[in-house]
Amino acid sequence: MSTPHGLPGGRFEGELDLALHLLDRQVQDADGALVGKVDDLELTRHDDGTLVVSGLLLGANALLPRLWRRAQELHVAAAPQRPGQHVADRIDLALVERLDSGVRLRTGRAGAAPPAPALAADRVRLAQLLGAPVTHDGTPAGRVVDVRARPEPGRGLVVRELVVGRGGPGSMLGYDRTPDMGPWLVAAVVRRLHRDSWVVDARQCDIDWTRGSVRAQGPRRPLAQDREDGRRGGPGPRVQPGGAGED
Fold this sequence. Notes:
Elements lengths: L15 E2 H4 L4 E3 L5 E4 L2 E6 L5 E8 L1 H8 L1 H10 L10 E4 L3 E4 L3 E3 L17 E3 L7 E4 L2 E14 L3 E10 L18 H10 L4 E4 L3 E4 L4 E4 L4 E2 L1 H5 L19
Parallel strand pairs: 2-8, 10-15
Antiparallel strand pairs: 1-11, 2-3, 4-5, 4-9, 5-6, 5-12, 7-8, 10-11, 11-12, 12-13, 13-16, 14-15
Helix pairs in contact: 2-3
């Protein structure tokens, strides 16, 4: 049996909603030791405007800006001499071995989550996109509640759609995808709250990273259509980095 070399961005099986399926998952090394949890995701912007998931971000320096940017500023000010205080721990997506209820790495714990380099101009965080206000054809239309990515050969996990609604990031809890997910009362409440949510192709969106807003245009589809069409998504039985599967 051979294991392919990891490519930048890795490769996952199945469509993923990044907030739902990756954020706050525990990360374990190859021996099962706890490394941390996924507090944010690093996205790399390509020349054609495509966003590709390139790394997992861990630790307070990843979590605090996601929850409240002012909290990060206070955290940094409290220990001005601590090395690396501005920097989240980072795990390259190519080091992910599989994804189920958590994230399992291909490597041992030592060096699994070294401090990330300062984000370059071509790299952004998922948290910068989640919750961003969205206009559609010039009309306010909600906020980004999740970001949908699909594996593509040779490219990795590529952002292809934005999920837009009135709730907070990840607030659909998967009830938008699975018809028989229970308990039924919770499912009914969540689906009613998100009855006006919709999905738009990321290529139809102009993301202003400085202002934290999104301008969408063109066709969009109701989120409820995904459930009716049986698009369950989520992690498959195996996640393998690289451009090909195992032999």
